[in-house]
Design brief:
The structure is a single chain. By secondary structure, the chain is an alpha+beta fold. 27% of the residues lie in helices and 37% in strands. The protein has helices at 2-18, 31-34, 45-52, 115-122, and strands spanning 25-29, 55-57, 62-65, 68-75, 78-86, 89-101, 107-111, 133-137. A hairpin with a 2-residue loop joins strand 4 and strand 5. It is globular and about 40 Å long.
Amino acid sequence: MRKGWLLALPCLLYVIGCKGTSVVGRWKVAPEVASSNPAGVPAGFMTGFAGTFKYNFKADKSFEGSMTSGTYTFDDGKLTMNTTKMGTTALPKPQTMSGEFSADGKTLTLHPPDIDKVAKLLKVSNLDFLKNIKMVRDE
């Protein structure tokens, strides 16, 4: 019986050690980012943006966002998201977004692609502040 516990101990330590570096779960824009008001951006933009920029990463390597879904890989603190659907419409080519964990594993910084194109579409002079979006767990 005692040998069984000794065999289970390494597995238990592995699971406990990996908990802090798991991306699985719900994530939202950090409150300090959501309440910011960058220069040149209409009032309330960040609040609205934060309300739609949320993700739920599942253990099966899929994710769902407010308006998107797809698959992801997570390795050594680096995240790659492949968006395959916008709403219920399948995208002809997956869109990729990258991200990484902070050293303490409490924040996830996402790097949305094509921010300059989005700025032109929204007729906003500069959306550089959206190139690095700080996310926190939504618990």
